[in-house]
Amino acid sequence: MEFIYPQASLIAGVDEVGRGPLVGAVVTAAVILDPLRPIVGLADSKKLSEKRREALYLEITEKALCWSLGRAEPAEIDQLNILHATMLAMQRAVANLPISPEYVLIDGNRCPKLPMPTQAVIKGDGLVAEISAASIVAKVTRDREMAELDQLFPEYGFAKHKGYPTAFHLEKLAQLGATEHHRKSFAPVKRAIGL
Fold this sequence. Notes:
Elements: E1 11-17, E2 26-32, H1 50-63, E3 66-72, H2 74-80, H3 82-95, E4 103-107, E5 118-121, H4 124-127, H5 129-152, H6 158-161, H7 167-176, H8 187-192
Parallel strand pairs: 1-4, 4-5
Antiparallel strand pairs: 1-2, 2-3
C-alpha cells in the first residue's frame, strides 16, 4: 500500500523507542515540522550514527514548529502490557504538543485513540519526515536516559546495550537480579527475580 500524504497543514509525526528493552520507560515523541525551515538528512533513527542523531536532534528541537515527549514507565508497562503502554505514551506525546495538529501520522501498523484524524504508516520512520524526526527525538532522549541509568548501575552496561536483552545484560540480570527500573513483566526479568 503506497503512502499518500494527507491534505493538512499541521501534521504531527509520532514514533516510539524502547518497546524491546527490559529496562526503563518506553519513550515517544511527536513533532510538527516547519515547512519554512527544512531539515536535511532526516531518516529512521536506527539507520543513523549516534553522532548524526545527536546533531539532527539539536536541529529538530530548534527548527520544528513544535515537539514534545511522552512516556510510559516500567510500572505502567508491567500493568498495561507493552502495546497498551506504548499507545498511552503516544497519546501523552500528542497531548503535550503546544500546537494541536490537524492530522497525526504514526509509525507502525496501529494508532492510539486521538482527538484528531490519524494514520498508521508501516516503516513510516523511513518514509515520512515528521515520523523520522520523532524517531530521532525519542531515540536520543531514551539513549541519554540509559546513559544516566548506567551512572547509577555501572555493572549492568546500560550505556552500551540501552536495556535490550543482550547476552551481557541477561548474564548481569542473572548474577545481580533486577533494578527497580527493570520491567518485571518481561520474561527474562521475571526469571531473574524468580517470579
